[in-house]
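tool_call: predict_structure(chain=1)
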Amino acid sequence: MTPGRFRSLLLRWYDAHKRALPWRETRDPYEVMVAEIMLQQTQVARVLVRWQEWLRRFPTAVAVARAPLRDVLVAWQGMGYNNRAVRLRQCCEHVAAHGWPHDAEQLARLPGIGRYTAHAITCFAFGRRVPVVDVNVELVYAAFVPRTAAAGDYWTLAAKMLPRRRWYDYNQALFDLGTVIRSGASSSLPRALRKLYAGRRAGGERRPEKLYGGFPMRLYRGALVQFLREKEGHAATAGECAARISAKLASRPAPFALQVARRLEKDGIVTVRRDTVRLA
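tool_result:
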């Protein structure tokens, strides 16, 4: 299939079947950034609710920058991967002090803003003609590259495939198409696209996570942060932390709870002073 044919089919399909997502209705870089960071590790259905809740609590980047980190972490409750909230606040602090960079390379230098998010903000907030590549887009372009393609190959192809007009819609359409391919529910696609992606679903196996008492470290991290959010004063002893994660997951001693806390401390989420763990 030629690039021109692919773009035409994709945009026509998108016009008829695009998802109604509220962050597609804004060009505010802060609102776009919050959505993109939330979507990195959280399902769209949950982000639909939490994005709007977050903006009511923190309507601007300045509001996040001025809030104590503890308040930001509490507001992030239920989203998981709490280091995203830490990086988001750091990014907002930079923006509050220096303003928004309008260039993808400069945006990528902000805390927690990698190549993908920088390009997404540049395209979806500032309207620049730049490619955007995430795992869904890689799944779409896998039909056009060798199986041995590296990440850089997808970005190169994405730049070549980007249309001269409607690049915003085209990039959003790639996300929607990738979601359809991943789900296998392709009945809405034009016949030519169904044929192109027949049998193509998200492949590959994740590397198994190391388990501690039958659970991965990320679950212990989440349980500990949740405990500190709920506890009065947002602080607890290692013994109290161990009791909480033992009740939630598997029986673990206080030294293990401190090990979890030390990892969280490296991400700026908690502080550890002797035997006490405190939400940052």
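agent: The chain has a mean pLDDT of 90. Proceeding to next step.
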